[in-house]
Specification:
Order of helices and strands: EEEEEEEEEHHEEEEEEEEEHHHHEEH
Radius of gyration: 22 Å
Shape: globular
Distance between the termini: 18 Å
Helix content: 10-25%
Number of helices: 7
Mean pLDDT: 79
Length: 352
């Protein structure tokens, strides 16, 4: 377990003070991570799993000399040749977490479990009633990741549905989860105002849409909410080698326009995903602190008849993913857990 500044990453296969996260067979433990609340969160990569299957070369069959007749013209028919099997796609992921400057620890949560990822934004309004808004989102992330480990990457939505049903904490959270299979099929769901962007060849290929009951009141799962996972927007896309998948909480999307996300990601196409995630997070914070910046949040406020200038200070969680077919890519297995939240969850016995 690596920790720092009150923020921990519990690697798969370990438990922290009784909070069992579970594990997958053959998954190596997280060796190290660098954290800095109020700053970027560094990328921690797992060592390559030992004993992985080696790729062998295929023998080319001799080309057949069959002849086909088309319109009375003899044409050679080339058949029987083996096509090289496509390498399975993998997710090369990096992440950044920047806490609201006035909240220090933040209310967001996220996990990365191989080819499945999720972000959760605790609803701050719960604090008005004396409830720690971090508890619900953190526990929802823990339960969802544990379900992913049991159900597999193709069951991201079911993992969230079951986690929401099992979450006994008081509070509320938005939720966005997705999984990508080796062929590039991406499935998941987004409930609320977090979201996903797919950037391909310098253009915005696809994006989720914000879901709000009214301005600044997103759809949310919670102890007093009537919203459900099934009300979310389904994610059913196919990604390709070289695509960027940007998953983030509204701290990014309220402060950075899609066109600027695309421009930044495209300009850093060859960069490590951690650097991309950190750059996006830093840009969001820069805009959030600028009272003269016309932000996406300010534009949405104007459309709703509300008055707001500048950006919007908030937690900013960004997961930047490059879709690759490199068999040496080491996929991550980690979850964000705050020490004090983890202790509270243990006392509640919510994830025991």
């Amino acid at each position: 377990m690596a920790q720092g500044s009150g923020f921990m990453f519990v690697p798969t296969g370990t438990s922290a003070a009784g909070v069992a996260v579970g594990g997958l067979s053959g998954r190596a433990r997280l060796s190290s991570c660098q954290t800095a609340l109020g700053g970027g969160v560094g990328l921690a990569r797992l060592p390559r799993v030992a004993g992985s299957e080696a790729r062998g070369s295929t023998t080319r069959r001799q080309r057949r000399a069959d002849v086909s007749m088309i319109g009375g013209i003899k044409l050679p028919f080339f058949g029987g040749g083996d096509q090289a099997a496509k390498a399975p796609l993998k997710l090369n992921a990096g992440f950044s977490f920047l806490a609201h400057p006035e909240k220090q620890t933040g209310e967001d949560a996220f996990f990365i479990e191989g080819s499945t990822v999720g972000v959760f934004d605790g609803v701050g309004g719960a604090a008005v009633n004396g409830v720690d808004p971090r508890l619900y989102s953190q526990n929802l992330a823990l339960l969802t990741m544990r379900n992913v480990q049991e159900y597999g990457p193709n069951a991201a939505v079911k993992s969230l549905i079951d986690a929401a049903s099992a979450n006994t904490m008081v509070g509320a959270s938005t939720a966005c989860v997705l999984g990508v299979d080796p062929s590039g099929r991406m499935n998941g769901i987004n409930l609320g105002d977090s979201g996903v962007r797919i950037v391909r060849n310098g253009k915005l290929q696809w994006r989720t849409k914000e879901q709000q009951h009214f301005f600044n009141c997103p759809y949310q799962l919670g102890s007093d909410s009537t919203d459900s996972v099934q009300m979310g927007q389904n994610v059913n896309q196919r990604v390709r080698i070289g695509d960027w998948i940007i998953m983030a909480t509204d701290g990014l999307f309220d402060n950075v326009f899609d066109r600027d996300i695309v421009a930044l990601v495209t300009s850093m196409d060859d960069a490590d995903p951690t650097a991309v995630a950190e750059a996006l997070g830093e840009l969001a914070v820069e805009h959030a602190r600028d009272p003269a910046y016309t932000s996406p949040f300010a534009e949405m406020a104007a459309k709703a008849g509300e008055s707001h200038t500048g950006g919007k200070l908030d937690d900013v969680t960004v997961i930047a993913i490059k879709v690759v077919d490199d068999e040496n890519t080491e996929e991550l297995s980690l979850i964000s857990v705050l020490e004090e939240v983890e202790a509270a969850l243990e006392n509640e016995g919510s994830v025991a």
